[in-house]
From TrEMBL:
Residues 138-218 are annotated as: Disordered. Residues 22-145 form the PX domain. CDD domains: PX_HS1BP3. GO terms for molecular function: phosphatidylinositol binding. Residues 200-218 have a biased composition (Basic residues). This is PX domain-containing protein. Signal peptide: none annotated. SMART domains: PX. Residues 182-194 have a biased composition (Acidic residues).
């Protein structure tokens, strides 16, 4: 099945830890998507290692173990967490990190660690590891086939991720800072960073040439 530009589902040689559920979940890293005025939002990278048919295509063998990654914001993880708590009332899930208006980088790191514990606990619980809520959260629509999508591919146009519009202040990272005044003649460098936080190049703002008024001689 064609997954389009969604995350690549690859066969891996990594051993499966939770053989009784057929899936391992972890949150090893996060990334900060930079916005305007030194603000942005954090996305948490969830790594899925599974042997379940729901994550495989026709080219995969039953014994294959596949791996892929999806990125989720705090709000998306919170919504998924609340669905599990409401329907299954699990007692084994660690608590969700608290909501705050603004989060610092250290708090984002703490959240990543908390989300890692939550996802690992989910993958160990048979009732949660194969639940429809988890399959939907990871982008798989049914157990009959895999339709893993990138988070930037909504089902409908109106369902665009509102984290980019900053309508949810919960997902905003960092504080706005006052720009420093600089001389016009001073060169200023800007970092060109892609959404994954990789420094691609540096752009240099050239100083504006001074205007010289010509005076005619009589």
């Amino acid at each position: 099945m064609d997954r389009g530009p969604g995350p690549a589902v690859l066969v891996t040689t990594r051993p499966l830890e939770n053989t009784h559920t057929g899936i391992d979940l972890s949150v090893p890293a996060f990334q900060v998507i930079r916005g305007k005025m030194l603000s942005g939002h954090a996305e948490y990278n969830i790594v899925v290692v599974a042997q379940l048919a729901a994550f495989k295509s026709a080219k995969h063998r039953p014994e294959d173990i596949v791996q892929f990654m999806v990125s989720k914001t705090y709000s998306e993880i919170e919504e998924f967490y609340q669905k599990l708590v409401t329907r299954y009332s699990p007692t084994s899930l660690p608590p969700l990190p608290r909501k705050v208006m603004f989060v610092s980088e250290s708090e984002v790191r703490e959240r990543r660690a908390a989300f890692d514990k939550i996802m690992r606990a989910i993958s160990k619980e048979p009732g949660l590891a194969t639940s429809p809520e988890l399959l939907e959260f990871l982008g798989t629509r049914s157990t009959g086939g895999t339709d893993v999508k990138g988070k930037n591919l909504p089902d409908k146009e109106e369902d665009e991720d509102d984290d980019f519009s900053f309508s949810r202040k919960e997902d905003i990272v960092g504080e706005q800072q006052q720009p420093q005044q600089q001389e016009e003649e001073e060169e200023e460098e800007e970092d060109d960073v892609d959404p994954l936080g990789v420094l691609k190049s540096k752009k240099t703002k050239k100083p504006k040439p001074s205007r010289v008024q010509k005076i005619s001689r009589s």
